[in-house]
Design goal:
Elements: H1 2-5, E1 13-17, H2 23-30, E2 34-39, H3 42-50, E3 58-61, E4 74-80, H4 88-98, E5 99-115, E6 121-123, H5 127-133, E7 138-149, E8 156-166
Parallel strand pairs: 1-2, 1-4, 2-3, 4-5
Antiparallel strand pairs: 5-6, 5-8, 7-8
Length: about 170
């Protein structure tokens, strides 16, 4: 999130796609952005609304494949760890549609997750496949890294891919 906001102009209209309980939405609002949060979970959105404090954040229930906004509505889209769970081209199409020309997309994908105890893998989209889906964007930054979550009931290792794009 710290890196994402360096790409934004003050007062930018930002979509927090897959906002969950609204933690990142509140952070963005604290930094002066006009924030909209969308999540598929009604429970998460209700929690986000309750704990939004005095922030004027617009939260709504929706899916990444069918966002409830007009074309070009946002200056930026932040999608942290949600787009790997939807059909790749449907998610890319909606991000493209709701983002204005020259807008910024900050996208964090899981490429796969390996569960340590049983060796089971969850495979998502590959990085080349993701780049092809967003080929109409200019890549400002991309990186891949491994994140280990070993102190949980089900220890696992994530292969992650971060993209910063300009439409």
């Amino acid at each position: 999130m710290l890196e994402f906001i360096t790409y934004l102009e003050p007062g930018s209209r930002v979509l927090d796609l897959g906002c969950g309980s609204g933690r990142d939405s509140r952070y963005l609002a604290d930094h002066g952005f006009d924030v909209y949060g969308v999540d598929i979970s009604e429970v998460a959105i209700e929690k986000a609304k309750r704990i939004a404090n005095s922030h004027d954040i617009s939260f709504s229930v929706g899916t990444a494949e069918n966002l409830p906004f007009q074309d070009g509505h946002f200056d930026a889209v932040y999608a942290g760890w949600v787009l790997q769970s939807v059909p790749l081209h449907a998610g890319a199409s909606e991000v493209t549609r709701v983002l204005r020309r020259n807008g910024i997309a900050f996208l964090a994908f899981l490429l796969n997750t390996k569960f340590v105890e049983n060796g089971h893998d969850l495979l998502y989209h590959g990085s080349d496949e993701i780049l092809r889906a967003y080929r109409d964007f200019r890549v400002l930054d991309q990186r891949r890294y491994v994140s280990e979550e070993l102190e949980t009931d089900k220890p696992h290792i994530h292969d992650a891919f971060i993209l910063v794009l300009r439409k």
